[in-house]
């Protein structure tokens, strides 16, 4: 068979795509969001506002308050701003989740989404009104502001995100490598010549 008659080579089969991890984001979100909402309902039904009740001695107490501000009662007069910010976070996380290939990032975004939607639900549905609702906080540690499950979830997400950023792990699961030119090389001495 002449070279002109050789059959065309079959193209190499494409690598199968890595499984999407957005499902894990959804699972973490659903579990943590449900836990946040159920514990807030129980706290409101069973705790007296402003009265601390020991749970694990003095280490963890139940202490119901209504927080109009951000975490740690910051900016209590700007509730509507935090409502808008939480909504933006939700939209950004949902958009990012579509590109996920990394399980740690999927978990981080699940915790972040659960925290944002947990407190956003309070701001939208609780008194004194839509977009101005006060967040239910009821967990207290020594020398720490009163918080809730959604706040704890956001803190867990922050730790995940910092670790992933330091390690250079992208949403697709790949790790950044420093280019060879940025690696430090020993300085040439004057004896080496210029």
UniProtKB/TrEMBL annotation:
Main location (coarse class): membrane
Keyword Transmembrane helix: yes
Disordered: annotated segments: 172-194
HAMAP family in the cross-refs: LspA
Pathway as given in its UniProt record: Protein modification; lipoprotein biosynthesis (signal peptide cleavage)
Catalytic activity: Release of signal peptides from bacterial membrane prolipoproteins. Hydrolyzes -Xaa-Yaa-Zaa-|-(S,diacylglyceryl)Cys-, in which Xaa is hydrophobic (preferably Leu), and Yaa (Ala or Ser) and Zaa (Gly or Ala) have small, neutral side chains
Membrane topology: Multi-pass membrane protein
Biological role: This protein specifically catalyzes the removal of signal peptides from prolipoproteins.
Short name of any one Pfam family annotated for the protein: Peptidase_A8
Compartment(s) of residence: Cell membrane
Signal peptide range in chain numbering: none
Superkingdom of the organism of origin: Bacteria
InterPro entries, per database record: Peptidase_A8
Active site residues according to the UniProt entry: 137, 151
Gene name in the database record: lspA
NCBIfam families according to UniProt: lspA
Residues passing through the membrane, by range: 70-94, 106-125, 145-166
Family to which this protein belongs: Belongs to the peptidase A8 family.
GO MF, any single term: aspartic-type endopeptidase activity
Entry EC no(s): 3.4.23.36
Record keywords: Aspartyl protease, Cell membrane, Hydrolase, Membrane, Protease, Transmembrane, Transmembrane helix
Protein name as annotated: Lipoprotein signal peptidase
């Amino acid at each position: 068979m002449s070279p002109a008659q050789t059959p065309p080579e079959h193209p190499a089969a494409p690598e199968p795509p890595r499984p999407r991890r957005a499902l894990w984001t959804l699972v973490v979100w659903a579990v943590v969001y449900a836990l946040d909402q159920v514990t807030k309902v129980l706290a409101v039904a069973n705790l007296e506002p402003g009265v601390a009740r020991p749970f694990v001695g003095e280490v963890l107490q139940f202490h119901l308050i209504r927080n109009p501000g951000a975490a740690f009662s910051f900016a209590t007069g700007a509730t509507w701003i935090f409502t808008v910010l939480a909504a933006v976070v939700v939209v950004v996380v949902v958009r990012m989740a579509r590109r996920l290939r990394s399980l740690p990032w999927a978990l981080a975004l699940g915790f972040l989404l659960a925290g944002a939607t947990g407190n956003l639900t309070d701001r939208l549905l609780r008194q004194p009104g839509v977009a101005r609702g006060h967040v239910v906080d009821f967990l207290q540690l020594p020398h720490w502001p009163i918080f809730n499950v959604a706040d704890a979830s956001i803190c867990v997400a922050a730790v995940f995100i910092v670790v992933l950023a330091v390690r250079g792990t992208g949403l697709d699961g790949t790790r950044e490598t420093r280019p060879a030119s940025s690696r430090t090389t020993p300085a040439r001495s004057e004896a080496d010549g210029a």
